[in-house]
Amino acid sequence: MGTREERIGKNEALFREVNERIREITTYDEDAEFLCECGDATCTEAIHMTLGEYEGLRADPTHFAVIAGHELPDVEQVILQNDRFAVVEKGIGDATKVALETDPRS
Ligand SMILES: [Zn+2]
User: Fold this and answer.
1) Distance 43 CA to ligand 1 centre (A)
2) Rounded to the nearest whole angstrom, what is the distance from the C-alpha of residue 47 to the centroid of ligand 1?
3) Which end of the chain is more exposed for a tag (fewer CB within 10 A), N or C?
4) Which residues sit with Cβ closer than 5 angstroms to ligand 1, an ion?
5) Closest CA to 67 of 9, 2, 12
6) pTM of the entire predicted model
7) What is the mean pLDDT of the chain?
8) What is the reported pLDDT for 104?
């Protein structure tokens, strides 16, 4: 068992991994459908974003895209919000460690 933060971090990392696969097979730019990258393992919400938005998100390994309301204020901070999704940044802690260790682009 890890800490709650570790579990959250692992769930987010897993969703990011799935989204990286979606990114690989997505060839159209508008309205690509990704998964919400929140810490809830049972979440199946879709997030619509352009590939440009997705690439911007992935440029920082501590950033994750979530549906508005799925952010966890005690372990992450909302740094961007629009009508489709919010981008959260992991603070210092176990979830950040997991986010960095599992960065698919490092
Ligand atoms: Zn979610």
Assistant:
1) 5
2) 9
3) N
4) 36, 38, 43, 45, 70
5) 12
6) 0.85
7) 91
8) 92
